[in-house]
């Protein structure tokens, strides 16, 4: 009876990162939503990278003479009201989207994880204070913070990045604290404490590595949320400013021409949806693949 | 009439879909139970005893495939549509589960939960059901039943909650009570009280009972007949005193030796059965116990051994009963 | 009153104060002299000083903050820097649109989400479950304003059934108003409903695995009865938590959606005020939105105690 118990306890104690890499990839390639999510996300990333070296036309040059062209061999998806090539705009727009998303999630992740780890390690009033503060921040959705910042500092990429970044923090605080608390309750942490290790060392050596996979999953999903927020802010004119192309801005431009060229409103939205869907599927897939607890239940 | 079995199970088989693929969780289980008789199912966890109980209740997951026959008063239960089964459950067959802490709905009052089967099966009014629920809770020894009828499960201790689930199971005066490890989750001091309560209620109402336990002591004290299960099969069955007098199967003997004993000399090592319970998804071809058996030989692994009668209505599924019973007699 | 209730009320008040402080700092203290901003850099210093005094901006920060708080308590939010009319009136005019819009979309969200979530959980791993869950996966990925544009394309441009924007008001009865809020409410709701449906489904599935579900089945209850009588109430707790959190997103969403449909609601007011540099209006609107979010989450907390007997008793 005792033999299988110790065996399972041993596997549970192994950090998810320690899983054999080949096994991970073999399982990953068979995971449908992971594969689909990875393909979609990578194609958006590919578009952004491609736009750095090549676009079919310039994304900023205005050519009123050839405005609102239907799709053709020269302009695969046609041109907008200023005669700019839609494909080029979409490619460069991917770049703004990813840039804002990465920085905003980076802000949320670094602040959120630090605060969450401190809350879990310190307990008591420190934890209470951090949690109250993050609850409080939840009352300010990104759009609301962005409005406040735009009213004061003017609209722009910095405004949207800051607003989205701040809104990301409380989610990371909660997730980090929740999963870190679970690790703190485990026996190997107790053993480390008994061995005289301080809470900082335990956090770095035991807690962080064990919640890393959860954080990766959460960051993927938060990235998707950041893209949605960025699109909404640029659509409202609070985010990325022209002439820098962005998908949200393109939608705003297209809305005034709904009756003339309805398709202009379809492409950028589809691009946003593909990026978000890809990241969400990727996150779901990663959760299944990285979380050994869930994986064993399957 | 009274000699006709109340429950008759013939060649029951259950195939489950587990994470490791399809598994034959129960095979070839047969027994008959007359009105007022008590039967014990004993074995380690994963041996198929709970699956057998759930098959009787018709509560296996939808993906489970049940073969063989289960008859209640002659009526076939295998393949019965769920709507018809619902009329039997809680009415003619009831079940008490292992975990009293989670077996009750935290959102409903205990009065409501005890009255629920009455309302479902007898069609009496809410007020009458409430009165009946108080009487039932009084009978199972819940203190201040009338006053606490509107309390919620979290306000009771584990032992009290198990009394409440017993009241619930008995509400409609069932013919058969299945008790699946009813005391395993409770404090040792409470265990005896709950078992005594169940025994007296079974006696008083003339119910048949199937008691499931991993504890040979519980089985020895509470049932007329017993079946020892291992790897989804019944390896030994017979009258309780007959089985305890002459344990025929090496596994039964192993279980007996592995039980902790009060007053054992200090330093005495608890004997364990070597090896582990086989995964149901990959059972060995022959005798399921072969890998852990001390007297295994090549024949044992060829095919599942037939049941050998070693006494009046005492059967053992072992081809080496000659050796095992001689050895078992001396060591026990 | 119970300790539970008291604690929550104190938290609510403290949160509102903190919110007001931050909003005041960002939208009043930080930008510097609003009079200068209103009049532009070229204005004469005398004119700016006159306006500063007129707007009451010459008083110290703490006094201005306390005056604002005091004003909020009695419903006097000051006058718009631009129009000179009371801010409370401006906001009230817009709320007759924004509040019905928020309520309508919340209702649509809850109905869609519960129906889809319960249906999929009851048909776990069957074709319907997989189909609806794939739909919700797509729904979560849609930006709500893009979905709104697609709805306009379909219903206004192609089918010409509903107008592409504008608000009919409540003067001609309730239906024209509701009709003009229908597309905005749906476009807000569908995305939220997709999220809430997934939460509902997993909450129901989780409860379905509980022991007491088996107990209920053992009593002779059918699957449907167990679902309605035993499972749903238990599953509602995580669903309500998410609903409370979604309300914040919903209000933020109304700001965006009002701009898609050119609806004269709170969101449009905020935007016009930002463009006009009418910071006192922005400040009060943001405070109102934050207060609504905080209050709704407070109500959700209260509802827990109403639904879950364990909370009430352990905290009395």
Automatic annotation (TrEMBL), chain A:
<comment type="similarity">
    <text>Belongs to the binding-protein-dependent transport system permease family.</text>
</comment>
<keyword id="KW-1003">Cell membrane</keyword>
<dbReference type="InterPro" id="IPR000515">
    <property type="entry name" value="MetI-like"/>
</dbReference>
<dbReference type="Pfam" id="PF00528">
    <property type="entry name" value="BPD_transp_1"/>
</dbReference>
<feature type="transmembrane region" description="Helical">
    <location>
        <begin position="138"/>
        <end position="167"/>
    </location>
</feature>
<keyword id="KW-0472">Membrane</keyword>
<dbReference type="GO" id="GO:0005886">
    <property type="term" value="C:plasma membrane"/>
</dbReference>
<feature type="domain" description="ABC transmembrane type-1">
    <location>
        <begin position="94"/>
        <end position="283"/>
    </location>
</feature>
<dbReference type="InterPro" id="IPR035906">
    <property type="entry name" value="MetI-like_sf"/>
</dbReference>
<dbReference type="GO" id="GO:0055085">
    <property type="term" value="P:transmembrane transport"/>
</dbReference>
<keyword id="KW-1133">Transmembrane helix</keyword>
<keyword id="KW-0812">Transmembrane</keyword>
<feature type="transmembrane region" description="Helical">
    <location>
        <begin position="98"/>
        <end position="118"/>
    </location>
</feature>
<feature type="transmembrane region" description="Helical">
    <location>
        <begin position="257"/>
        <end position="283"/>
    </location>
</feature>
<dbReference type="InterPro" id="IPR050366">
    <property type="entry name" value="BP-dependent_transpt_permease"/>
</dbReference>
UniProtKB/TrEMBL annotation, chain B:
<keyword id="KW-0813">Transport</keyword>
<dbReference type="Pfam" id="PF08352">
    <property type="entry name" value="oligo_HPY"/>
</dbReference>
<dbReference type="InterPro" id="IPR017871">
    <property type="entry name" value="ABC_transporter-like_CS"/>
</dbReference>
<comment type="function">
    <text>Involved in beta-(1--&gt;2)glucan export. Transmembrane domains (TMD) form a pore in the inner membrane and the ATP-binding domain (NBD) is responsible for energy generation.</text>
</comment>
<dbReference type="InterPro" id="IPR013563">
    <property type="entry name" value="Oligopep_ABC_C"/>
</dbReference>
<dbReference type="Pfam" id="PF00005">
    <property type="entry name" value="ABC_tran"/>
</dbReference>
<dbReference type="GO" id="GO:0016887">
    <property type="term" value="F:ATP hydrolysis activity"/>
</dbReference>
<dbReference type="InterPro" id="IPR050388">
    <property type="entry name" value="ABC_Ni/Peptide_Import"/>
</dbReference>
<dbReference type="InterPro" id="IPR003593">
    <property type="entry name" value="AAA+_ATPase"/>
</dbReference>
<keyword id="KW-1003">Cell membrane</keyword>
<dbReference type="InterPro" id="IPR027417">
    <property type="entry name" value="P-loop_NTPase"/>
</dbReference>
<comment type="similarity">
    <text>Belongs to the ABC transporter superfamily.</text>
</comment>
<dbReference type="GO" id="GO:0015833">
    <property type="term" value="P:peptide transport"/>
</dbReference>
<dbReference type="GO" id="GO:0055085">
    <property type="term" value="P:transmembrane transport"/>
</dbReference>
<dbReference type="InterPro" id="IPR003439">
    <property type="entry name" value="ABC_transporter-like_ATP-bd"/>
</dbReference>
UniProtKB/TrEMBL annotation, chain C:
<protein>
    <submittedName>
        <fullName>ABC transporter permease</fullName>
    </submittedName>
</protein>
<dbReference type="GO" id="GO:0005886">
    <property type="term" value="C:plasma membrane"/>
</dbReference>
<feature type="transmembrane region" description="Helical">
    <location>
        <begin position="65"/>
        <end position="83"/>
    </location>
</feature>
<keyword id="KW-1133">Transmembrane helix</keyword>
<dbReference type="InterPro" id="IPR000515">
    <property type="entry name" value="MetI-like"/>
</dbReference>
<feature type="transmembrane region" description="Helical">
    <location>
        <begin position="181"/>
        <end position="199"/>
    </location>
</feature>
<dbReference type="Pfam" id="PF19300">
    <property type="entry name" value="BPD_transp_1_N"/>
</dbReference>
<keyword id="KW-0812">Transmembrane</keyword>
<feature type="transmembrane region" description="Helical">
    <location>
        <begin position="285"/>
        <end position="307"/>
    </location>
</feature>
<keyword id="KW-0472">Membrane</keyword>
<dbReference type="InterPro" id="IPR035906">
    <property type="entry name" value="MetI-like_sf"/>
</dbReference>
<feature type="domain" description="ABC transmembrane type-1">
    <location>
        <begin position="95"/>
        <end position="304"/>
    </location>
</feature>
<keyword id="KW-0813">Transport</keyword>
<feature type="transmembrane region" description="Helical">
    <location>
        <begin position="235"/>
        <end position="264"/>
    </location>
</feature>
<keyword id="KW-1003">Cell membrane</keyword>
């Amino acid at each position: 009876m005792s033999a299988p118990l110790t065996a399972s306890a041993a596997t549970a104690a192994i950090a998810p990162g320690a899983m054999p890499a080949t096994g991970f990839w073999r399982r990953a390639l068979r995971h449908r939503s992971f594969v689909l999510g990875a393909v979609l996300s990578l194609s958006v990333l590919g578009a952004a990278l491609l736009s750095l070296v090549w676009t079919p036309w310039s994304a900023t040059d205005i050519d009123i003479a050839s405005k609102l062209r239907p799709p053709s061999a020269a302009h695969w998806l046609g041109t907008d009201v200023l005669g700019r090539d839609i494909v080029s705009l979409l490619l460069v727009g991917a770049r703004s989207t990813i840039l804002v998303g990465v920085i905003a999630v980076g802000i949320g992740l670094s602040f959120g994880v630090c605060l969450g780890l401190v809350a879990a390690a310190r307990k008591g009033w420190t934890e209470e204070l951090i949690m109250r503060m993050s609850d409080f921040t939840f009352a300010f959705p990104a759009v609301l913070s962005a409005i406040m910042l735009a009213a004061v500092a003017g609209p722009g990429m910095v405004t949207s990045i800051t607003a989205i970044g701040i809104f990301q923090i409380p989610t990371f605080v909660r997730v980090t604290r929740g999963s870190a608390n679970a690790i703190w309750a485990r026996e190997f942490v107790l053993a480390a404490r008994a061995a005289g290790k301080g809470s900082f060392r335990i956090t770095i050596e035991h807690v962080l590595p064990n919640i890393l996979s959860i954080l990766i999953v959460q960051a993927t999903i938060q990235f998707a949320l950041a893209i949605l927020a960025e699109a909404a802010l640029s659509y409202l004119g609070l985010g990325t400013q022209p002439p820098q192309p962005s998908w949200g801005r393109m939608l705003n431009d297209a809305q005034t021409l709904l009756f003339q060229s309805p398709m202009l409103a379809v492409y950028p939205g589809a691009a946003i949806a593909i990026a978000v869907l890809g990241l969400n599927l990727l996150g779901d897939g990663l959760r299944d693949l990285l979380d050994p607890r869930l994986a064993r239940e399957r | 009439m009274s000699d006709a079995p109340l429950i008759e199970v013939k060649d029951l088989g259950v195939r489950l879909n587990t994470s490791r693929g399809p598994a034959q969780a129960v095979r070839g289980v047969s027994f008959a139970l007359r009105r007022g008789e008590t039967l014990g199912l004993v074995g380690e966890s994963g041996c198929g005893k709970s699956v057998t109980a759930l098959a009787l209740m018709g509560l296996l997951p939808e993906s489970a495939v049940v073969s063989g026959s289960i008859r209640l008063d002659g009526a076939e239960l295998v393949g019965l549509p769920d709507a018809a089964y619902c009329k039997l459950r809680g009415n003619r067959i009831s079940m008490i589960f292992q975990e009293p802490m989670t077996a009750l709905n935290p959102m409903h009052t205990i009065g409501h939960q005890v009255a629920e089967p009455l309302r479902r099966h007898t069609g009496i009014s809410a007020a009458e059901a409430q009165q009946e629920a108080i009487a039932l809770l009084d009978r199972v020894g819940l203190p201040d039943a009338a006053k606490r009828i509107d309390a919620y499960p979290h306000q009771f201790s584990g032992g009290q909650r198990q009394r409440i689930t017993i009241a619930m199971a008995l509400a409609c005066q069932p013919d058969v009570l299945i008790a699946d490890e009813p005391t395993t989750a409770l404090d040792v001091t409470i265990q005896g009280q709950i078992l005594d309560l169940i025994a007296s209620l079974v006696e008083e109402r003339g119910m048949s009972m199937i008691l499931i336990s991993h504890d040979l002591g519980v089985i020895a004290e509470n049932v007329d007949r017993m079946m020892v299960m291992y790897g989804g099969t019944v390896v030994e069955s017979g009258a309780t005193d007959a089985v305890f007098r002459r344990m025929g199967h090496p596994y039964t003997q192993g279980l007996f030796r592995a039980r902790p004993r009060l007053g054992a000399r200090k330093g005495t090592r608890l004997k364990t059965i070597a090896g582990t319970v086989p995964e149901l998804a990959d059972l060995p071809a022959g005798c399921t116990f072969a890998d852990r058996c001390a007297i295994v030989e090549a024949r044992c692994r060829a095919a599942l051994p037939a049941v050998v009668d070693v006494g009046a209505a005492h059967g053992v599924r072992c081809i080496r009963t000659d050796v095992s019973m001689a050895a078992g007699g001396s060591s026990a | 009153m119970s300790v539970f209730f008291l604690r929550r009320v104190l938290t609510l008040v403290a949160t509102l104060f903190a919110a007001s402080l931050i909003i005041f700092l960002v939208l009043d203290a930080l930008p510097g002299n609003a009079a200068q901003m209103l009049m532009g850099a070229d204005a004469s210093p005398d004119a700016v000083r006159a306006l500063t005094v007129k707007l009451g901006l010459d008083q110290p920060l703490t006094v201005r903050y306390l005056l604002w708080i005091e004003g909020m308590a009695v419903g006097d939010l000051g006058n718009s820097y631009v129009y000179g009319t009371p801010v409370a009136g401006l906001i009230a005019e817009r709320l007759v649109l924004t509040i019905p819009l928020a309520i309508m979309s919340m209702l649509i969200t809850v109905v869609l989400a519960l129906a889809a979530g319960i249906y999929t959980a009851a048909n776990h791993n069957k074709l319907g479950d997989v189909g609806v869950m794939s739909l919700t996966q797509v729904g979560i990925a849609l930006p709500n304003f893009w979905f709104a544009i697609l709805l306009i394309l379909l219903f206004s441009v192609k089918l010409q059934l509903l107008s592409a924007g504008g608000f009919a008001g409540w003067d001609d009865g309730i239906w024209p108003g509701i009709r003009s809020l229908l597309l905005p409410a749906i476009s807000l709701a569908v995305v939220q409903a997709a999220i809430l449906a997934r939460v509902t489904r997993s909450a129901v599935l989780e409860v379905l695995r509980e022991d007491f579900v088996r107990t209920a089945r053992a009593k002779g209850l059918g699957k449907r009865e167990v679902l309605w009588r035993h499972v749903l109430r238990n599953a509602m707790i995580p669903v309500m938590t998410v609903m409370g959190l979604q309300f914040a997103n919903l209000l933020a969403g109304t700001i965006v959606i009002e701009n898609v449909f050119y609806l004269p609601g709170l969101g449009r007011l905020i935007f016009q005020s930002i463009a006009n540099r009418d910071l006192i209006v922005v400040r009060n609107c943001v405070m109102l939105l934050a207060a609504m979010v905080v209050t709704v989450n407070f109500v959700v907390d209260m509802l827990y105690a109403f639904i879950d007997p364990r909370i009430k008793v352990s905290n009395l």
